Amino acid sequence: MKTYAYLLTPFLAWLVAGCTKFLVNSIKAGKPAFGLIGYGGLPSNHSAIVSSIAALIAFREGMDQPAFGVAITLAFIVMLDANSLRRQIGKQAVAINRLAADASGCEPLRERMGHTKVEIAAGVLVGIAVAVIVDALLV
């Protein structure tokens, strides 16, 4: 019997991580945080997505399968990028926005980019949890 678990799992991980991030940001802000939707924040959507599919492959096919190797490699690349490159881009945006504060007509750059290790770990936990639930429900 075919299931759509491999299609559904990353979508659900994205949805759960995104809703969780919105709730966390709204609680911190004391109001609905629609302006904080996007890159950065807890949990990491990207980490949740890639870890959910890697976990589902591990559960259903085993960790000795080539598909798991590809999935875990992709997951590491995404998480390293979120913690290093994208985080540095966010720091640069802060500095550029300070320099350009007096310039008229300059739209500020987005400063929330990348993730801390805690935000990435939270995304991984969300992804694995979603994979466990999908694997249990879509047999």
TrEMBL record:
Supply the InterPro entries for this chain.
Answer: DUF212
Question: Mind listing the UniProt keywords for this protein, alphabetically?
Answer: Membrane, Transmembrane, Transmembrane helix
Q: Does the keyword Ribonucleoprotein apply?
A: no
| Membrane-crossing residue ranges in chain numbering | 6-24, 36-59, 65-82, 120-138
- Answer whether the UniProt record assigns the keyword Transport to this protein: no
Recorded hits in PANTHER family, A to Z, give:
ACID PHOSPHATASE/VANADIUM-DEPENDENT HALOPEROXIDASE-RELATED PROTEIN, ACID PHOSPHATASE_VANADIUM-DEPENDENT HALOPEROXIDASE-RELATED PROTEIN
What is the name listed in the Swiss-Prot or TrEMBL entry for this protein?
A: Divergent PAP2 family protein
